[in-house]
Amino acid sequence: xxxxxxxxxxxxxxxxxxxxxxxxxxxxxxxxxxxxxxxxxxxxxxxxxxxxxxxxxxxxxxxxxxxxxxxxxxxxxxxxxxxxxxxxxxxxxxxxxxxxxxxxxxxxxxxxxxxxxxxxxxxxxxxxxxxxxxxxxxxxxxxxxxxxxxxxxxxxxxxxxxxxxxxxxxxxxxxxxxxxxxxxxxxxxxxxxxxxxxxxxxxxxxxxxxxxxxxxxxxxxxxxxxxxxxxxxxxxxxxxxxxxxxxxxxxxxxxxxxxxxxxxxxxxxxxxxxxxxxxxxxxxxxxxxxxxxxxxxxxxxxxxxx
Length: 306
What we know:
By secondary structure, this protein is mainly α. It folds into two domains: 30-242, Lysozyme, CATH 1.10.530; 249-300. The chain has eleven helices and four strands. The chain has helices at residues 30-39, 64-78, 81-104, 111-119, 138-143, 158-176, 179-188, 190-200, 212-229, 261-264, 272-278; strands at residues 53-54, 57-58, 249-254, 295-300. The strands form two sheets. It has a two-stranded antiparallel ribbon. Strands 3-4 form a two-stranded antiparallel sheet.
């Protein structure tokens, strides 16, 4: 399970006279919004929060190394503005789906930001082959019972993938003793974390010297949590109508082969593209289902695409 990539961002201008980013103070009316869009572009140093935590576990911000690493991720993720706005837009669509699943499967709510760090809340596949919103490698998905073949890839099924992520993370928490270490193990693997614990005789994420990707990983999650919890404080301004919304669906049971999904969906008034948008775990234009396994297909309510 790998993150979507390392981000390098050059900050060309630093306003040393400011201690905080300039956020919109006026009510976000259309008039004020348009005025700020044109006139309000500044780059400032960011004050670190006095306290931060991940899943209730405190971040040792009194440690100068930890402060610098946290500062880096706040700057990188604040000033990657286009990506940040897209994350807010997608979060409005996907967090209402992810949050109850985290609760259902026993994970702290903060793990929704791990999903953001992994995939940017897109059904993507990384260069290494980690796929879905939770970015599982194929071997991990198969190990935890997901169906992955030419016709179905349940890494792209949000509920099933969230269930597997919960199983993995809860096992890692039991093994390493904290949710923070469990999050790090999600990136580096349990074997990789064990190796460094044994070599360095340390058990805290914040006291371990790790590879660059894993050493930044939890801080990136923390930065995303901080920014997405306080958008205007970090210069992100949007209206409700700017955000993406989830399309209501109903489920149709399928327990037979399907020769052609494009034909199968016609009675529901949608096309193959729309079927795939709501069922990204379907990987081909047909389904071989000789075993009679039950699948539940999400069909959008009428009136949203026409």
